[in-house]
């Protein structure tokens, strides 16, 4: 169980990479060797899917040399050779090549896995403006569906209607598009995502000009957010022809609008940037977003029109680590500037709601009864830490607020110990607040199973020296929790959250939603019975966490 628990694949995660090999203009053998070397490195690093740049087997900036017969035959042979030379390795590999079919030359993404060419996707949109002249050499792939292409001794699926799906790894479904495709108003990856792809890949050449890197990031972030997918982007880099253009080799990996990792740009060496994609999170996001399903219906349910090319991935089940940053405090950003912005908005959301309520009731005065409980104190001094740190009040008031904040939170109406004067500690009874917040986020916002929440919590909290901490967390509060501790408190959280505490939540008064990370209003984000049981979640935790 321990080995399976620590495997990313057991939690429906997939390791992806954007590869930037060094190009050799017109030297297909050298480009083939470079691609094979990066595929070998990716396999050694436990990568499941690798995205190479556009036309990486030939190089992009060949201009009219693309139309030479010798070049075309060498490109065909390189694709077959690449499949043969990578047959022993596990990753799904997306390489770029120019291929001839039915008297037309296409700019293609070729999907290869364990020696098998799974399919060929032609570029849909060909740029033919400013510095681009692709229609001079290539035919558009737009609308080509249900076709095949001869490569080596096999007829291989060819068209823009292809998805590549691992039959033994749920959620690992890949769509490929090429460079200009995601600059188009209707990127093919939108249809791919609506048809079921969770990982959308872009093989790009994309020369660099001032400001273009930001534009690529904007497009990748927007597409991954809008299509509820991961987006892996790889642009051509060192070695491409600089006759008229330059290349920066930008590699990007996004998930739901969030940048997971990026390559160094203008590097003179090959680079492989890697991140772990949470396919279950993507699927859960789509389940929660009715607009995503409506969009699929409006598009005519594209899953009926695609060819889903299956492959047996044969992924490793052992512990390969986690190549993904997990925030210890998922409700708030670590970055101070973003945190200040969030606090400003949270503060003013509450102020605006209170002003509206007072004006609606016609009250002339405001009285807040401070009972000693946290909720009434919070109502009195919204977001106390932010108020103090940003000097919303004078120094004397800040001192009083800081003193209140430093007090141990204790059960309401429970007196202090008669002998020692010590108050009972709520945290010692329910577990560390930071862990409870972590558990709540992944239950409420993403609906993840307890075993996966424990997996993520362990990676976030097992080593205090790893990962980032918000700057205002003091050194003595930067603690670590081992897996037995996480499991212990998670079990108690599940009982409390699903079984014993819903009734009080069901009776809470009006209040505006503040956090995009989820809310517990019975009229808003969280609808749940107040007389249910936690058995499903407890059984899953006990069965799958060592």
UniProtKB/TrEMBL annotation:
Query: What is its EC class?
Result: ligase
Q: What molecular functions are annotated in GO for this chain?
A: ATP binding; glutaminase activity; NAD+ synthase (glutamine-hydrolyzing) activity
What reaction gets catalysed by this protein? deamido-NAD(+) + L-glutamine + ATP + H2O = L-glutamate + AMP + diphosphate + NAD(+) + H(+)
Q: Name one GO cellular component term.
A: cytoplasm
Q: Does the keyword Cytoplasm apply?
A: no
Pathway field of the UniProt record reads:
Cofactor biosynthesis; NAD(+) biosynthesis; NAD(+) from deamido-NAD(+) (L-Gln route): step 1/1
Q: Which UniProt keywords apply?
A: ATP-binding, Ligase, NAD, Nucleotide-binding
Domain of life per record:
Eukaryota
Record EC number: 6.3.5.1
Q: Which GO terms describe its biological process?
A: NAD+ biosynthetic process
Q: Where is the CN hydrolase domain?
A: 14-279
Q: Which PANTHER family match?
A: GLUTAMINE-DEPENDENT NAD(+) SYNTHETASE, NH 3 /GLUTAMINE-DEPENDENT NAD + SYNTHETASE
- Provide the family line: In the C-terminal section; belongs to the NAD synthetase family.
NCBIfam families, A to Z: PRK02628.1
Q: What is this protein called?
A: Glutamine-dependent NAD(+) synthetase
The source organism is: Diploscapter pachys
The organism that produces this protein has a lineage beginning with: Eukaryota, Metazoa, Ecdysozoa, Nematoda, Chromadorea
């Amino acid at each position: 169980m321990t080995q399976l628990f620590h495997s990313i694949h057991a939690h429906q995660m997939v390791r992806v990479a954007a590869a930037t090999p060094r190009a050799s203009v017109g030297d297909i053998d050298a480009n083939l060797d470079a691609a094979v070397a990066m595929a070998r490195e990716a396999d050694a690093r436990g990568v499941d899917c690798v995205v190479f740049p556009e036309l990486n087997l030939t190089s992009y900036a060949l201009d009219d040399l693309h139309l030479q017969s010798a070049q075309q035959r060498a490109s065909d042979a390189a694709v077959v050779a690449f499949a043969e030379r990578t047959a022993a390795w596990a990753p799904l590999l997306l390489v770029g090549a120019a291929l001839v079919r039915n008297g037309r030359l296409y700019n293609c993404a070729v999907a290869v896995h364990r020696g098998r060419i799974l399919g060929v996707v032609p570029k849909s949109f060909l740029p033919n403006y400013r510095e681009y002249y692709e229609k001079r050499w290539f035919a558009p792939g737009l609308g080509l569906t249900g076709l095949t292409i001869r490569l080596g001794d096999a007829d291989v699926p060819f068209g823009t209607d292809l998805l590549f799906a691992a039959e033994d790894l749920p959620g690992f479904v890949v769509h490929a598009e090429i460079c200009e495709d995601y600059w188009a108003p209707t990127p093919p990856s939108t249809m791919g995502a609506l048809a079921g792809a969770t990982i959308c890949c872009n093989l790009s050449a994309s020369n660099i000009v001032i400001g273009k890197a930001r534009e690529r990031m904007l497009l990748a972030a927007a597409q991954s957010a809008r299509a509820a997918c991961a987006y892996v982007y790889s642009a051509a880099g060192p070695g491409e022809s600089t006759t008229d253009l330059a290349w920066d080799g930008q590699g990007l990996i996004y998930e739901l609008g969030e940048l997971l990792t990026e390559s160094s740009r203008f590097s003179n060496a090959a680079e492989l940037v890697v991140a772990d994609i949470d396919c279950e999170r993507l699927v859960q996001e789509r389940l929660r977003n009715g607009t995503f399903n409506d969009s699929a219906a409006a598009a005519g349910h594209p899953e009926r029109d695609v060819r889903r090319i299956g492959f047996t991935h044969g992924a490793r089940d052992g512990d390969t680590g986690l190549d993904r940053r997990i925030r210890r405090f998922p409700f708030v950003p670590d970055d101070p500037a973003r945190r200040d912005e969030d606090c400003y908005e949270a503060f003013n959301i509450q102020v605006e709601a209170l002003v509206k309520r007072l004006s609606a009731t016609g009250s002339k005065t405001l009285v807040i009864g401070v009972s000693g409980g946290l909720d009434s104190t919070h109502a009195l001094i919204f977001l106390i830490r932010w108020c103090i740190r940003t000097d919303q009040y004078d120094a004397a008031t800040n001192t009083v607020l800081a003193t209140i904040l430093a007090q141990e939170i204790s059960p309401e109406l429970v007196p202090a110990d008669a002998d020692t004067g010590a108050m009972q500690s709520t945290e010692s009874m329910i577990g560390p607040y930071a862990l409870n917040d972590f558990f709540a986020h992944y239950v409420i916002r993403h609906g993840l199973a307890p075993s996966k929440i424990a997996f993520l919590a362990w990676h976030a909290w097992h080593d205090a020296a790893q990962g980032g901490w918000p700057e205002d967390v003091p050194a003595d509060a930067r603690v670590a929790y081992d897996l037995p501790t996480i499991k212990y408190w998670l079990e108690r959280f599940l009982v409390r959250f699903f079984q014993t505490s819903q009734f009080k939540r069901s009776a809470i008064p009006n209040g505006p939603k503040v956090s995009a990370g989820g809310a517990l209003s019975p009229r808003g984000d969280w609808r749940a019975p107040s007389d249910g049981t936690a058995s499903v979640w407890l059984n899953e935790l006990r069965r799958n966490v060592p």
